[in-house]
Amino acid sequence: MVIARNPEKVRDIIARARQKQKTVGFVPTMGALHQGHLSLVRKAEKECVFTAVSIFVNPAQFGPEEDFSRYPRSFRQDRILLEKEKVDLVFCPQPRIMYPEHFSTYVQESALSDNLCGRSRPGHFRGVCTVVAKLFNIVQPDKAYFGQKDLQQAIIIGRMVRDLDIPVKIRICPIIREKNGLAMSSRNRYLSSEEKVQAAAIYEALFCARSRFKSGETSALKLKNMIKNNIKAKAKKAKIDYISIVDYETLQDVKKIERKAAILAAVYIGKTRLIDNIIIKP
Amino acid sequence: MVIARNPEKVRDIIARARQKQKTVGFVPTMGALHQGHLSLVRKAEKECVFTAVSIFVNPAQFGPEEDFSRYPRSFRQDRILLEKEKVDLVFCPQPRIMYPEHFSTYVQESALSDNLCGRSRPGHFRGVCTVVAKLFNIVQPDKAYFGQKDLQQAIIIGRMVRDLDIPVKIRICPIIREKNGLAMSSRNRYLSSEEKVQAAAIYEALFCARSRFKSGETSALKLKNMIKNNIKAKAKKAKIDYISIVDYETLQDVKKIERKAAILAAVYIGKTRLIDNIIIKP
After folding, report:
1. Which chain A residues have a beta carbon less than 8 Å from that of B109?
2. Which of A186, A221, A240, B113 is deepest in the core (most CB within 10 A)?
3. How high is the ipTM of this complex?
4. For the whole model, what pTM was predicted?
């Protein structure tokens, strides 16, 4: 496993892999790896000959009041995990490499980015799109792997790739959950054990809403209220940021569920903002 | 010479050239080709084994009041010119191919794009950056060729390429001029013969200012006033949009010329907006 700290080294190594006709799979991460990330890595290994992972806590996607500086960083541990997975290349640049002096170009998706997390985190998806476009240009993978956990992100990246003609295939992989249902997230490290128990209420509520939908409830309002009440009843520390039901293609809120949709939740448990979602199809 | 009307065909042909280890040079244009464009094509031919040219009048870089619909289109003539130059590939997509339904992702450079033409043409460089990023992703050239005539554009593209890690080398090539000094431009076709004579005043004034600078005048204000007076004296139909002297790196106005700078002019001759520039070095 090669550790590259600058784009030139990545390009060199990828060029050599390409000369051997190897297909390249890529998993961009912010580190603090968990089983969710590793499931993406395994999918990449399965589908591609060469696997690259990036570890970069991207300052451009954090708001000024957000947790950039305290975001968990565990490079030693991450490195061991990726070595075990037989990853070929890890790209872990410093911020000054990714955002040199006078950096002034951003990629902005403007139809899917304003709702949901975009509403609570202005500028977040501009930062995500910019760094992912950069990483794609550096690694030039055939396929890139994103978790359904960050569903809005994955869908926005898919739109960006289509719109800008980036030659990469985007794969969205299932959410990996703790035994109690809590979606795996690097931010779960912030949670106390009591908070972890309460955080399970998010998925329970989503799961329950899907069951209701399957039994015939198509009113988004009713399902959302049910979710809110469920979470409040089970998690006293919960503060709901949003519970939304949106069309899967447009990410715009729907009133009645008539085609593929997603129920998304962003909930603070104590000081930690957690997100989760579930996809529903009529 | 292959004519491709969709990105898939371009990718196919480029992939085949790559298999033969050919280097790819690329000249993006809006068609209505003149000797300026052809000088870029010749430079590409000289430096690369495979040469691609795009012809696409990009709606995203025209303002609602601008000349998108009447912009000169002369595909037959362009095709003959490019065949003569032994160009390998011409990419000429329809707007609906480049901007499919629900297109929503744009590339925005934000430090160099507000001054000069960005001031007169809001959104223009967002449209330029977006289409050029797309074209680079489709053609994936080793080198791309831009004319110094559109100096702000060329410098912004250079910044975009650096910031987004696009693996292409940007070459800025000299302005090609008519015998009377007028910078070649597709928009010169709008000019009456009388206007063409008057339009020569723009370069004359820039040239004259550079002479003054060489003789010791470093005050931007004095040089700009000289240029304005010169143009007004010689071209009654001229309406000045801007005359600016800016730092070559930052494109910000300077008061005193102490390092590499550019004098840029945007002038209406009748209804036609023309631009020109000249680079000065202490």
Report:
1. 104-105
2. B113
3. 0.97
4. 0.97
